[in-house]
Amino acid sequence: MGTMALVLFGCGAAVISGTGAGALSGIGILGISLAFGLTVVVMAYTIGGISGCHINPAITIAMLVAGKINGKDALGHIVAQFIGATIGAGILYFLATGNPGYKMGEWALGANGWGEGYLGGYSMQAAFIAETVFTFLFLYVILNVTSKHGNSTMAGLAIGVTLVLIHLVAIPITGTSVNPARSFGPAIFAGGKALSQLWLFIVAPVIGAIAAALLWKITGEDKAG
Predict the structure, then answer these.
(1) Which pLDDT value is given to residue 222?
(2) Given its phi and psi angles, is residue 179 left (phi above 0), alpha (psi -120 to 50 degrees) or beta?
(3) Mean pLDDT of the region 148-156
(4) SS3 83
(5) CA–CA separation, 36 vs 38, rounded Å?
(6) How many whole angstroms separate alpha carbon 186 and alpha carbon 168?
(7) Proportion of the chain in helix, strand, coil states, percent, rounded to 5
(8) DSSP single-letter state for residue 19
(9) pTM, 2 dp
(10) Which of 111, 129, 162, 180 has the most Cβ atoms closer than 10 angstroms to its Cβ?
């Protein structure tokens, strides 16, 4: 449910209210950033008590490395996240194509990408660095605010605000993933370059997530007394 909502609200804001085939328009980068961040806030307080509101394979992998979840539960989370993302993208596909003027381009449905023709036209190297670094920062925040030394009542808000900040910088570079499932759903329907470039939005966030978990194990809860 959580990952479906993230794709539907976040990518939906970009596709329906935020961007056209070319330059950013409508609600723009700020509006799209808020859509993603506020969805995380809402879902954190809605399903946090059920699943921890991972809604992102990178989060689940970081929690596994940090020792906060076992392998069986991690696998269940990740499978559910990819299913949810696919359902969310499928709903968005039917909504978007209900507009006779909508065209399924190379990076349709808010798919992530890079290179000529994609938003700012940034290089693959820039995209890889951005996705790795921003996922690292995102997960380091999550691991700390959800630890026993964090403020549990404000954790959802802190995580959502962090995601807003990440989107404000990264949207022109990659459309902002930091979440393999969020990238997977739209790419499956868009095909083309979105699907061929999907590997980066799986590999880079996973590297960033593992790095954050390893740093947290050194500096975070395990060493905090």
Answers:
(1) 53
(2) beta
(3) 79
(4) helix
(5) 6
(6) 20
(7) 70, 0, 30
(8) B
(9) 0.91
(10) 111
C-alpha distances (whole Å) from 196 to each of 98, 179, 207 are: 26, 17, 19
Q: What is the pLDDT of residue 17?
A: 85
Average the pLDDT over 60-81 and give the result. Answer: 95
pLDDT of residue 154: 87
Task: Report the alpha-carbon distance of residue 191 to residue 167 in Å, rounded.
Answer: 23
Q: What token pair was written down for 124?
A: 């693959």
Spatial distance between the Cα atoms of 149 and 151, rounded to a whole number of angstroms? 7
- Residue 139 tokens read as 């997960």
**Rounded to an integer, what distance in angstroms lies between the CA atom of residue 44 and that of residue 8?**
16
- Cα(140)–Cα(64) distance, integer angstroms: 14
Q: Please state, in angstroms and rounded to a whole number, the distance separating the CA atoms of residues 196 and 13.
A: 24
Residues 6 or more apart in contact with residue 45 via CB below 8 angstroms = 156
The yes-or-no verdict on residue 224 having pLDDT over 70 is no
Range 13-49 burial, b when 16+ CB lie within 10 A, else e: bbbbebbeeeebeebebeebbbbbbbbbbbbbeebbe
82 CB-near residues (< 8 Å, 6+ apart): 3, 57, 180, 181, 184, 185
Q: Collapsing DSSP states into helix, strand and coil, what is residue 24?
A: strand
pLDDT at 22: 43
Give the phi and the psi of residue 19 in degrees, each rounded to 5: -135, 150
User: For residue 23, what pLDDT band results from cuts at 50, 70 and 90?
Assistant: very low
